[in-house]
Amino acid sequence: MTTQNPLPRRRLLIALDRPGGDTPLVSVLLPDGAAVFPDILPAVRAVADTLQDEARRTVAELGQAVTCHLGCDACCRHLVVLGEAEALALLRTLRGLPEPRRQQVLARFQAGLARLESADLLPRLFAVFTREAHDWRHVAEMLAAYWELAIPCPFLEDKACGIYDERPLTCRQYAMTSPPAACLDPFGPQASLVKVLPPVDLAGAAAAFDGEQAHASRVLPLLLCLLLEPRLGRHGFPILEPLPMLDRFLKFAAGHYSRKDPPPNPQAKEYP
After folding, report:
1. Alpha helices in the chain (DSSP H)
2. Per the domain annotation, does 4 fall within a domain?
3. Based on the structure, what is the number of domains in the chain?
4. For 8-45, what is each residue's pLDDT tens digit?
5. DSSP β-bridge partners for residue 121
6. Rounded distance, CA 30 to CA 245, Å?
7. What pLDDT, on a 0 to 100 scale, did the predictor assign at position 134?
8. What is the overall mean pLDDT for the chain?
9. Which of 77, 92, 231, 251 is the most exposed place for a label (fewest CB within 10 A)?
């Protein structure tokens, strides 16, 4: 489990050493002492931002600028999937919000769950992400069914992310070069989305890593974090030195995640 109080942190400059490519530098905040994997997620987010910025520059050089902008919040109604470490960190962020904002976000969580229940989707959603998360067909069905309910993310405030600095890795890796209007019908027969992919899927890697070694991916929808909170972290996370832990994670992510799964919408396009 994550610690309840903020850990003392130190800022370090790390180099992302990649064979055959450049070596970008990333400024990261790491705990100043032994910690668990959820505690180093701020550093993982910084790396994710660097990789996504690089992907944006690459497609811009190809003449395909990212069209996402502040106030374009269609992506905030998608089913966002998290690994357990990210879910625990997200709950810590939620618990740390000032009142009355925290109660407002909690109320949005409850409203979203009520929408799922009224649509009779909650049991199926729970089943897919506890027993069938590796069955892409079932997951794709849930992504489309969830979208149809138009449930806004509980952290969406005034058409912007209310926890932008702590937003999930999946959200950080989400960017489009297609017209914003295309995002309003991502699962329709005429969908024509063009997604910008970072070179490494850190979100997927984080769902399959405990800080020391790989394990079978354990994921859940963001909206179910509160509902499943008692089950989170029951496998435990080893307490380790943060810098070697970050290094192990990045090597694991680079070596084991090459995006072999098809996109949720078979008509969507992706930049490699």
Report:
1. 41-61, 84-95, 101-118, 122-131, 136-149, 169-172, 202-206, 242-256
2. no
3. 1
4. 999 999 988 766 567 789 999 999 999 999 999 999 99
5. none
6. 10
7. 77
8. 88
9. 251
